[in-house]
């Protein structure tokens, strides 16, 4: 006989896409939920993400399968929310290798997993992806992934949070530094920055790069490799680009207002962390990043910076998602992953089902927190 008891009240810690999607799924199951976040909704990693929806590149089959299901949920969401179609686009992704490299093996791997991956010449790429300069594409060609896209996470988070409230849930913003309260081997509450306490039958920690530290306070280790990073966002620019670009020196997607969102591996490595923990972004690095973006766009438009989004990028220690019940602390659950945008809706659904019914999805078998030893 299944003796599992559905919790009457769940506190979800984190105002990003994982936290809010979990909260709304719990509310849809008529479970009372309180969503708590240290700042404003979408003020963390979800608010400064390239938010590329994909499962491109070399991935394990379980991770690839999970991400495919994640993309599926976004396509359903777009069909159900046509009023927000500008915040969720599926116009494909284009990527090519740098000098001295080749992406032929990457293309072959994607096809071996059944991913929609098309090898194109530079001229074919320009026909498929308006707004690019074909002269910037690698001489060997490029990979076009027709099923990829991007999402404006703050827009979606706002819609989901409104539904949480409409269904009787509570959303607590600007709660300050929060922590999980435990007693007798189980999670019992969330303590907020002002010392107040939100009692709960279960607690979900989905606080982006703060997740490992919050879990660590309960004696649970999940492994953390979250780097300091930033995205640069330009003012609206005239360009036909709609496809997500991943080029050797810059990754680019459109923003809802017509600007461009961009980042890169090399620019991320230049971020300096001050003694007080603040992040220092060099103006010259930002200028070069925008120059690299202009160089791959048709007409090489002049790009003007609107703002920088800087913070830590959530990446588990082994690079794989960490989702589900936390062993050793009853009533404690977590969601922590680099692929927050792609997995955002799906993880909330799977985690809420596990909390409500006590049954974990087989999709999460290789991504359980238990793969990390307690105390690490």
UniProtKB/TrEMBL annotation:
A single GO molecular function term of this UniProt record: oxidoreductase activity
Entry-linked InterPro entries: FAD-dep_OxRdtase, FAD/NAD-bd_sf
Gene3D superfamilies the record matches: D-Amino Acid Oxidase, subunit A, domain 2 (3.30.9.10), FAD/NAD(P)-binding domain (3.50.50.60)
Alphabetized SUPFAM superfamilies for the sequence: FAD/NAD(P)-binding domain
Domain FAD dependent oxidoreductase: 9-352
Name of the protein in question: FAD-binding oxidoreductase
Keyword Oxidoreductase: yes
PANTHER family per UniProt: GLYCINE OXIDASE, SARCOSINE DEHYDROGENASE-RELATED
Keywords from the UniProt entry: Oxidoreductase
